Amino acid sequence: MHFNRRDAIKVFGAGLAAGAIAAPAVARAQSAPYKLGFISALSGPSEPLGRPMLMGAEIAVEEINAAGGINGRRLELAVRDSKAKPDVATVATRELVGEGCNMLLGTVSSAVALAISGMLQQENAILITCAAHSMRLTHENFNRNYFRITDNPFMRQGAQAKLMAELHPDVPAWGGLIPDHEYGRSTWEAFKYGLNRFYPKIANRTPEIADPIFTQYGGSDYRNYVASAMRSKARGMFVSLYGGDAVTLFQQARPYGFFEKKSPIVDSANEFIVARAMRAETPDMWVGSHWYFGAFKGNPINDRLYAAYVARTGDTFPDGFLSEGHAAVMAYAAALKKTGGDASTPAVIDALSGLTFDSATGPRTIRAEDHQAIKPVVQYRLRGAKTPEGFEVVDFRVVPGAEVIEPPTPGAPVQW
Amino acid sequence: MLSEVLPTALNGLVWAMSVFLVASGLTLIFGILHILNFSHGGFVMIGAYLAFTVTNRVPGTASVAAFLGIAVACAAAVGAMGLVVDRVVFRRLKGVDDSYSLVATYALLLLCEGAVKSGWGGNFLSMSPPEGLGGALFVGDLFVPSYALFVIAAGVAVYLALDLWLHRTASGRILKSVALDPWMASLLGINVTAIFTVAVVAGFALAGLAGGLLAPNQSLSPALGGTYIIQAFGVIIVGGIGNVRGAFLAAVLLGLVDAFGTVYVPEFPGIFFFVAVAVIILFRPQGLLSGIR
Predict the structure, then answer these.
(1) A384 near B CB under 8 A
(2) Which of A173, A372, A384, B215 has the smallest count of CB within 10 Å of its CB?
(3) What would the pLDDT profile of A29-71 be if each residue is shown by its tens digit?
(4) Using one digit for the tens of pLDDT, what is the confidence trace for A244-287?
(5) CATH value at residue A343
(6) Are A260 and A339 contained in the same domain?
(7) How far is B268 from chain A (nearest CA, A)?
(8) A181: contact with B, CB 8 A cutoff
(9) Which of A218, A231, A243 sits opposite B124 (nearest CB)?
(10) C-beta of residue A149 within 8 angstroms of C-beta of residue A365
């Protein structure tokens, strides 16, 4: 084929034209924002949990963008409401992936997290969960595209049992009021395991553990469960009812003298939710939390996050979900820095595995084996008080995550 | 043994009467208008939130008398809402397929939830019983929370009042006659539309009263509308839909079954209510009592 000067000019001209068209597209790709898909309960009974999680993620995105973004590119949040329902969440996940969000974060409910986790590889997406506590997520149902940024029941309830052995070595008899679902049963398993692990070591005695009292989920009357607990010989009581169910239980337990006879009370995870509802009637109890701002004063990320929350809401007691939404964005930001800007799913998974990044609770490391974060476990002692909020934090403890985390066994159940 | 049986029975009765308080308005409206009002729980919730707000905002409302007065005021307020709902929604549902009633009343429930969320927010709230009902009574070895006794007494009082109204008064008899045959009642000169309105307002007032009386019984949240409604539907179905006596009887029966099941078979909490409903419907699909009574 003869290639003359005229042909060369044509090819050169076509090349110039193509370049003129393609150049802005390349420039756009290089400056286009990284899209993160946020999915959590933003309506329905779990809304009070999902909203602060979203706010934490928004604050992190604003902070990062104000500081120039990641690799010169901004972060952008696309938000979907899961209504804490797995079927709604899976549809929302496909929508987000369809919009170009392969990096997802959020979720309150374990059922939602399990549903999304199961479709991640097929959708070529990644999910960092901020609160879902099912042990199965990092064990039986583990897959490489899933990450948990917060603690799990093995860590949380283990730390609570350890603290009780330290503070109340004279109370070896324990019982539990446990909601009859997977989360409730796994919290009890973890607390019981923790009692058997730490009481002999710390209190030098074997704990006496009564059979737990399983309660109805979403019930309106817990009096018979309270009466059964009152008949039990257990003095210490572990309660893992959540939200409105916990408020109803505590309300109905008070006239029985429950809080005088059963002490200490350990609440698995209600943050300030019960105290905000019950105010001066809040029982004296140790509460498990994702984050307590007072425990990390002096950490600049903690202080900035708390100040941003107070400025936005006027409330001075944020729930820990705020820091977990924030931490998930921080994890993606650190991973994107590590990849040098490559936001493809395999690159981000590799970057997140084994990643250490900074958060409101200090540095966190995502374990490479099972993608479980090693983070501090936070507990505080709450009670009703004559303060403007109607309650006060009397004490708090932070247990390093490495002291209470389970061995990684991805693909296999946790060994109790 | 007795020390376990009596408190269990008592707790079963507290559950029964709290559910009956909610179910009474539901069954009354169905008995007269033949509309299954899915929004009923939503109006119970509005009654509870109104009681919460008045109790917290108005000083000097800590006494039992004030608590009762607030509950009656909630009944009046929600009854007035019933008047609007009757004019705007229920009158349009006469003679149409049941599915339209279902959609319309479900939409009303969503409206109630939205209104509560806008007015009070999505956080959980709680309210204490009034002074004098916060403690407990000791009857021998039996330990009884005062508020639990109050709920039982309130349920029985509402039942007796409704029963007397329906069976011993002229207006009650007119109401029953309209329920049985509105066409014949209209031929006899009874203003059937007005009677329907009376039934709706009474049903909504009962929802408001239940909300006011039960506000200290459980946490408040925009999901409260659904907390009692499944049990209330179970009670009115087992009792015979539209039958107040049947609802009372069914509430007591199901409350006791659920309470003893919970205590003696603790591995399956909350399941006995549903098992009992299923078994009773299997043998008496028309309910324990039928027709408006």
Answers:
(1) no
(2) A173
(3) 457 999 999 999 998 888 889 999 999 999 999 999 999 999 9
(4) 999 999 999 999 999 999 999 999 999 999 999 999 999 999 99
(5) 3.40.50.2300
(6) no
(7) 8
(8) no
(9) A243
(10) no
